[in-house]
Specification:
single chain; 278 residues; alpha/beta; Rossmann fold; 9 helices; globular
């Protein structure tokens, strides 16, 4: 899982109370719901499930309309909207059932419009956002030729990238097969920047009561820059109840260091939303 800390300047709360869960047609939504329920129980928070009807995407799927064929095009658009609306109702019903089974307070709602814009509009009124690591909110997105999500054939949208750029709320991007576990490991990429510090502080408040092993990692070619910053960061986390914290220094560009293989052993990867350096 990837946790992207926001870059806002508002005060940090001791806990979270209201979580936005973004639901799409993919099986990533199942993992997102599982994680959101786990997080809600951890913080005694409520969940709100959101689905977005991508009206513009449906209209684009019809393509150019020949002269005199507008009536048929409108009929086709209406049929696609109705089918998609039925899918949305199914997603909301599934979300409600899973929340009830988990004993979590919940609400459901739907919006129309460009998915990323709709999610961003709502996210500012929530303490955090939970979404799949790959997103399929747009009408054109899907599982690809093999019909299975989580493979190289996936045709995802870019809603997650757009949300990360501007949301004020922390974003949890959940991988396909996430399962709840009381013990897990986290990698925190840290360079001492305001964005990085913000992510570190949010991690501490969100996970302070869990049993997690933390690896603090700083990428730099100047070895003398790491010890003091990492030492203070380790002290900060331990003061918030994290007993198992290690610090490590890597050389090179962080985009090269944090490969899929490097991140694979960790259950959670923590990043500052707009960090560009080690």
């Amino acid at each position: 899982m990837v946790f992207i800390g926001n870059v806002g300047r508002g005060p940090l709360l001791a806990m979270i109370n209201r979580i936005l869960v973004c639901l799409d047609k993919s099986t990533y939504t199942d993992a997102a719901i599982d994680y959101a329920c786990w997080l809600a129980r951890h913080h005694d928070a409520s969940l709100e499930g959101l689905v977005v009807l991508d009206v513009e995407g449906i209209e684009r799927s019809v393509g150019a309309v020949p002269l005199g064929a507008m009536k048929f095009a409108k009929t086709g658009i209406a049929a696609k909207e109705e089918n998609y609306h039925q899918l949305m109702e199914t997603l909301l019903a599934k979300f409600s059932e899973r929340c009830e089974a988990a004993g979590v307070r919940h609400m459901e709602f739907e919006m129309q419009g460009e998915p990323a814009e709709a999610i961003l509009e709502e996210s500012n009124y929530f303490d955090c956002v939970v979404v799949g690591l790959r997103t399929f909110f747009t009408y054109e997105s899907g599982a690809g030729k093999d019909g299975e999500y989580g493979t190289a054939d996936d045709e995802p949208g870019d809603s997650l990238e757009q949300i990360m750029k501007t949301t004020l709320a922390p974003v949890f991007a959940v991988p396909l097969n996430w399962k709840p576990d009381d013990h897990f490991s986290a990698l925190i990429a840290h360079n001492g920047s305001p964005h990085s510090m913000r992510a570190l502080r949010q991690f501490a408040r969100l996970y302070g009561r869990t049993q997690v092993s933390v690896s603090l990692m700083h990428c730099t070619d100047a070895a003398d820059q790491s010890p003091e910053m990492l030492g203070k960061s380790v002290g900060f986390l331990r003061a918030h109840g994290f007993a198992n914290v290690e610090a490590r220094t890597e050389s090179g560009d962080i985009r090269d260091v944090m490969s899929a293989d490097y991140c694979e052993p960790f259950d959670l990867v923590v990043l500052g939303a707009h960090g560009k350096s080690g």
